Amino acid sequence: MKRVIFWLITFTAILGACLTNNANALPKEYATIVPPENLNAPELIAAGRDLYVADCAVCHGATGNGQGTTQPRFGLKVVDFTDRARMQSLAEQYLFWRISEGGRVEPFRAQGSIMPAWKFQLSDAQRWQLVAFIRTLAR
Ligand code: HEC
What is the tens place of the pLDDT at every residue in 41-74? Predict the structure, then answer.
């Protein structure tokens, strides 16, 4: 009986970890944000590209394939923004959340993410420009 309970708890814990590790786990204050309407606007994308080259390419790679010159030695690998299926599964609000809070929130923190939080350095508008640009990398 003890064994059954042990496995039951283990199973629930693993299931819980899997569920919180998906895109729907984003906090309410981000989930309810309405993205700017003009995310496809060329000037927004161009501004996002400049920010990306300056702040993100070092890890995420110039093409967004996750192969920048700085790579984490431990923990989560840099994600691939050119992976179309993966990117299509991610909401705009999810990308905005991740850029804003980086790896300092769970479950990414516990997994050793080195993704910085950009909300302290970049305005909301700039972080949306980055979302707009990142969206173009898988097209
Ligand atoms: C020091 C390296 C580093 C820098 C610089 C960096 N990132 Fe990241 N980023 C990561 C790593 C590692 C991950 C994967 C781990 C995670 O999801 O937290 C990640 C994850 C992300 C994700 C989540 C993607 C997904 O599919 O879940 C987004 C969005 C993102 N980064 C955008 C950016 C943007 C935009 C910038 C620049 C403003 C940036 N990153 C700068 C390392 C970095």
Answer: 999 999 999 999 999 999 999 999 999 999 999 9
Where in the sequence is the domain holding 74, given as residue range(s)?
Answer: 26-136
Interacting residues of 111 by C-beta distance below 8 A, sequence separation 6+: 75, 76
Ligand 1: list residues with CB < 6 Å: 55-56, 58-60, 70, 72, 76, 78-79, 90, 95, 98-99, 103, 108, 113-116, 118, 130
Total domain count, the chain: 1
pTM of this structure: 0.86
Closest CA to 92 of 50, 135, 136, 42: 135
Which of the listed residues 59, 126, 136 should we mutate to test ligand 1's pocket, taking the one with most ligand atoms within 8 A of CB?
59
